Amino acid sequence: MGISGERPPRVYRVLEILEDEIKVGMGLLGVTNMTQLNKSFICSADPTTSPHEMSSWVNMPVNRIT
């Protein structure tokens, strides 16, 4: 069953959450339409913490765990 057919409640809920997140993000950026988005809204940033073996999103350097 595809998303375009009869939607299972969980898939429908995921799409609702995604829609809400997009609306909030656009509001925080001060835009009201997707066409207003461009690459000027993207910038590089330094990580807030260094990666380590207990990180949720680990990108471990070589020889980190011995």
Structure description:
The chain has a domain of 25 residues. It has one helix and no strands. The chain is flat and about 45 Å long.
Provide tags for this entry.
mainly alpha; single chain; 66 residues; flat
Chart the SSEs and their pairings.
Layout: H1 9-29
What is this structure, in a nutshell?
This protein has 66 residues and is mainly α.
Q: Report the sheet with the most strands, covering strand number, pairing sense and barrel closure.
A: none
Number of strands: 0
Beta-strand proportion = under 5%
Poorly predicted regions: none
Instruction: Compute the CA-based radius of gyration.
Output: 19 Å
Overall shape: flat
Work out the helicity level: 25-40%
Provide the residue-averaged pLDDT.
Answer: 80
